[in-house]
Structure to design on (345 residues):
């Protein structure tokens, strides 16, 4: 073989080797991409703060420290943004940015029916306005609806549920399809116990959620026994809520940073209270996330109770903590971001 032929042969060999390396690189990354999964993480969002119909908000307005329902009760923790009106673009902007900073991609809105008056009407209006805000801002953040317990048992008829599906579809899903959160390929709609749909609409992914002993698809939250602090009253039983987070058959799991309805009861708004890791010193939230990370292969959806339920003090929204002034207002959101990065990192 002459010199020219040897050079040509070497070039062909080099080309084959380089092509193999490049091909192997792309095959490797294609396999990684195919096998990896991004697990959505969202939080329960409550829009009952302030009164949108009269544009009155802040301390002592409905939802903060009043006897109004729903959402009435004593709030001892102070949001970084102050006691706000839920139905406000300024509030939406702050909350969405903070949720996204924490790694959340969607929220579950507690919705109290298709009303136009009273506090339930204000929540319905705020829900409409939130979807409109997301659309106008071209936000990638998404929302799903949880039908909260506004329906008495005698009103839970098939026709009632059909009207709920129609309303949610016509008012939220169809006009704001880019902003409505899907699970298992369909718009997600939750029903909070004791609301149990007698009719399942095949256009939605329908799930019930709540605490034991209620028969629900998704357990609202659980906390291991070692984080139990105290309870009182006839309407609570900590044994129903003790244990590791429950991963449902379809991969959903709900986490809670703490539960503390002591002040809600102390100020006379309830005759019972329940406390798990009441001052955030026991590490409940860290334990919950460690459980999820250890079982991530079985998880397809993570929900956090809650973004801003201040009456049970489960909120991770940035706030000044009443019982633990040593922690940063961003303590729980920073923890959340770190764990979500690990989950999907």
């Amino acid at each position: 073989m002459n010199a020219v032929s040897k050079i040509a042969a070497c070039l062909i060999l080099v080309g084959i080797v380089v092509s193999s390396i490049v091909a192997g690189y792309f095959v490797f990354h294609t396999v990684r991409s195919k096998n990896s999964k991004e697990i959505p993480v969202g939080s329960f969002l409550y829009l009952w703060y302030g009164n949108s119909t009269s544009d009155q908000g802040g301390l002592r307005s409905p939802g903060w420290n009043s006897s109004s329902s729903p959402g009435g009760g004593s709030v001892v923790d102070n949001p970084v943004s102050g006691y706000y009106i839920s139905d406000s673009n300024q509030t939406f902007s702050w909350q969405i940015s903070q949720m996204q900073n924490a790694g959340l991609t969607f929220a579950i809105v507690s919705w109290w029916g298709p009303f136009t008056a009273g506090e339930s009407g204000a929540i319905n209006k705020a829900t409409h306005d939130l979807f409109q805000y997301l659309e106008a801002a071209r936000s990638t953040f998404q929302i799903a609806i949880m039908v909260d317990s506004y329906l008495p048992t005698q009103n839970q008829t098939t026709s009632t549920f059909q009207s709920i599906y129609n309303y949610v579809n016509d008012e939220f899903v169809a006009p704001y399809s880019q902003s409505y959160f899907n699970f298992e390929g369909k718009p997600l709609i939750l029903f909070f116990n004791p609301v149990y749909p007698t009719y399942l609409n095949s256009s939605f992914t329908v799930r019930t959620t709540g605490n034991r002993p209620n028969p629900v698809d998704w357990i609202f939250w659980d906390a291991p026994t070692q984080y139990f602090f105290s309870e009182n009253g006839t309407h609570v039983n900590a044994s129903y809520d003790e244990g590791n987070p429950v991963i449902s058959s379809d991969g959903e799991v709900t986490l809670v940073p703490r539960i503390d309805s002591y002040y809600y009861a102390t100020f006379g708004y309830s005759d019972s209270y329940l406390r798990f890791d009441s001052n955030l010193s026991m590490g409940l939230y860290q334990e919950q996330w460690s459980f999820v990370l250890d079982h991530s292969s079985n998880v397809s959806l993570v929900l956090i109770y809650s973004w801003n339920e201040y009456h049970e003090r489960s909120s991770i929204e940035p706030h000044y903590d009443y019982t633990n002034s040593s922690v940063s207002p961003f303590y729980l959101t920073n923890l959340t971001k770190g764990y979500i990065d690990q989950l999907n990192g």
Helices lie at 3-35, 89-101, 118-137, 158-173, 262-266, 284-294, 331-344.
